[in-house]
Input
Amino acid sequence: MKKPSKFTLNKIKDFLTENTSIIVILLTLFSLISLMMINGFKIDYESLDTDPPSSVLVEDRVPALARYYQRNRVNTTIVLASPSELEEGEVLEDITYEAKYNQHFRFDEAFIESGQSVPTREKHLFTHFSLTPGGEPLDPAERITEEVTVYANWIPKPKINPWQVLAKITTQIELGTQTYIPYKYQYQLVNKGSITNITLDTIPGLIRESYDVKVNVPGTETKEIVEFKYDYNRQVRHTITYDLNGGQLLIPTQRTTYSIPNNGMLLESPGAKMEGHRFLGWSTEPTGAVTLLDDVVMKQDTTVYAIFQKSVAKPDPASGTARYQTSYFLESIELKTEPNKILSPKLLYAVENVANINDEIVSEEITIPHFESVALDKYSHKELVLGAQYLIVPKKDKVFSLNQKVMSFTETNPAGILLLVLIFGVLAWTFLDNRSTHTKYLGWGIILVVAGILAFVLPQLVRFSIYFQKIWDMSKVLNPDGTKITPLIGIKLSGSLLLIAAVFSFATYAICMVAKKKEKKIEKIEE
Output
């Protein structure tokens, strides 16, 4: 009986099953080399190069200029003790320093170098500051606006027995919502390991839920003085109203009215917007100058108004002009808590203007009462040449391979990463899978087909950088037909090799399946 078909089919099957994995590996490796080493695609776009080179506006409205304004200084003297109060041999010199205009009646900065927030005196305990010797505690939320002298007040330090600690009772009063600052200090001896009942003072204009408190000091306490803080709220409060002045809330759920304690600060403010306008900030007058809200002191119901500036339209690139921004910064009234701490200035507002490219631009000087313009490294650019916003358009075409990420042109390409994952996945599978199962050839073929198609469409999936995307979009307007991406030999060869490898895989799978059916048929005939 003649059986050439069986012999021929089995021989082809044996050859493919023995060699398909090697063929797939070689074709896939060559495909990978083509993809990574040979130019894969070319980007053509309309060149705007001239002699001298033309420039295209690709960036706009950068913070180019800035001015910094420092607060005026106010001489402040702290009298630590009058000569008549000093003990024999005791020396306490007055402290004089320059406070920032409109800062609080807080004197932390005078004692930062010693690591203290209040003065210290041997055999004495500090209780409070006052405007007269032995006077009532001054309100620490009051602002320093003129030369002032304050007096430190003391009590003799009592003897502290080994079973006792000195409880330092710190009374804090409201500065803003849920913000409190020290007002005065009281002291009381309490026993360790016990709970002591203390009745706090009632203070005119201030209130708290309970004046009866319990001081609990563990029996293992090692400190000589233990501090306990108690907050008082102000009874007199005022309403701050944020008038949007024709605008809208930036966040609709924000509030436009707040209840603020007397002498308190504005710790929250909503954002505002208006169609076709730029929000600058808040003013105490509907058309007044923008005010730093830190400088608003709540002594009565107050309304502040949103101030807007009409937006400056983006110039036509052909006009040779560009927008620039001038920012105005003010010194904060924030106090240093560390000797070398650098305090960040606060932005008052920023305005926009238009100027010719390559022209010198100069920030406009503004007048702010109790502030003076000073140089500060980071914020001192008062004049610049307007040119940073313009970039020169490069050559007309660029050639890429997959492994290139050219600065200012292409970003990381997810499609390219997926293609590499598929290629390396097939290589790993063919290297590691030594099973005799035929379905693996089908799996290889499917992955290779997907990878081959992806290789051919890869140039169309390239992701441009923001810079080049603007040039690309402009080129499509100037020359739609000449703005294109063309596959080159690297892409064509890579995709073709992957598809050939897929054909080998599918052929092996198909022949194996046909041979298996024929063998079953012959076995039935022989039976």
The mean pLDDT is 83. The longest strand covers residues 164-176.
